[in-house]
Design a protein that fits this description.
single chain; alpha/beta; six-stranded parallel sheet; 17 strands
């Protein structure tokens, strides 16, 4: 029996403002003897293949006394998040050695976790070794971000009327790029914003957006929205919050729908979050602003989403951009880089080959 390397990413302290990779996390080197691992009932020993970095994770790096829909990560614990892993040893009747699973686990190369088939956050990837799409897609377009796009549009925005205008912020991100392409399939006019010219060009030339703009080049969001959405906004898929949301409300048509998926511009603001000045307009315009958590809707929408998006991808109607870095040691920088706009598309770290 030989020891295997098992690097862990330890969450050291609650960040004050923007996380600092070296202060917030510690890369801890260790080993594990796989044959010596004793599993309790329903536990499995897994090898991590991919780890996802997502904006919601910033909300978990908070004071545990502040309650939210997803529990806080405790300083000193191994960081955790969405992962793809391979089962290498099982004491769970529903999972066998060789199963490849999408779920939530620790940021470590090998991990012991308890799996529950009723947990909507996890699912097996069928025939994973011969998957027709990259495994990483199951953390992206065929996973939580894709389902987020589908749920936000169908739960909150119907009727999805062809010809209406949809604006999506963070449009080149994990969720935004799917929102825009799916809305085009449904016949809407689609406008997006992103943080650099390369991303804007990609939205228009590769994904088929009708218009897009680099928000960093426009201090007056109201003016650029009037230019790119001359007939007003019927749907705003909200990913950033702050000044952008304020300007969107000014440009919304009556009965516009705003699914509130995220507000990444505000996540690292501790005491100076940007106010919304135009919210009173939501009354006269009869706007629908609704926050949602995708995990609440997995059971209702999951099957239809998988069928629909698998078909659209086979037909080439949805493409997916990823930023994948290699090596578990890259996880802290990958997560911090997400909040600095360094990723292009869905951010992931590849930890091991299948």
């Amino acid at each position: 029996m030989s020891a295997k390397r098992n690097i862990q990413i330890i969450y050291k302290e609650i960040p004050q403002g923007f996380p600092d990779a070296s202060k917030t996390f510690e890369i801890k080197k260790g080993t594990i003897v796989l044959e010596d691992v004793v599993l309790k009932s329903d536990e499995v020993l897994v090898r991590t293949l991919y780890a996802s970095v997502d904006p919601y994770m910033r909300g978990r790096m908070r004071d545990p006394a502040n309650k939210s829909y997803f529990g806080a990560i405790i300083p000193g614990d191994v960081m955790e998040g969405g992962t793809i892993f391979e089962v290498i040893k099982s004491n769970n009747p529903n999972f066998v050695t060789g199963d490849v699973v999408v779920g939530y686990s620790k940021w470590e190369e090998y991990s012991v976790i308890s799996l529950d088939v009723s947990d909507q956050r996890q699912f097996k990837i069928p025939n994973a070794k011969n998957s027709p799409v990259p495994l990483s897609y199951f953390l992206g377009v065929l996973g939580m971000p894709g389902l987020t796009a589908y749920v936000g549009l169908h739960k909150i925005c119907e009727p999805l009327t062809p010809g209406q205008t949809l604006f999506v912020s963070a449009a080149s991100g994990a969720v935004g790029q799917v929102v825009g392409q799916y809305a085009k399939v449904l016949g809407l006019r689609v406008v997006g914003s992103a943080g650099d010219d390369e991303k804007v060009e990609y939205l228009i030339k590769e994904l088929g957006f009708d218009a897009a703009f680099n928000y960093k080049k426009h201090e007056d969001f109201n003016t650029i929205l009037k230019q790119t959405c001359p007939d007003g906004i019927d749907i705003y898929f909200e990913n950033v919050g702050g000044k952008m949301l304020d300007a969107v409300i000014q440009n919304c048509n009556p009965f516009a729908r705003i699914p509130m998926c995220g507000m990444i511009s505000q996540y690292n603001r501790l005491s100076d979050q940007e106010p919304i000045y135009n919210l009173v307009a939501a009354i006269g315009k009869r706007l629908r602003l609704e926050g949602f958590i995708v995990l609440d809707e997995s059971a209702r929408y999951g099957a239809d989403f998988t069928t629909t998006f698998t078909k659209l991808m086979k037909e080439g109607k949805i493409k997916y951009k990823e930023t994948i870095t290699n090596g578990i040691e890259c996880l802290p920088d990958a997560l911090v880089g997400l909040f600095e706009g360094k990723n292009f598309g869905k951010g992931l770290v590849k930890i091991a080959d299948l």
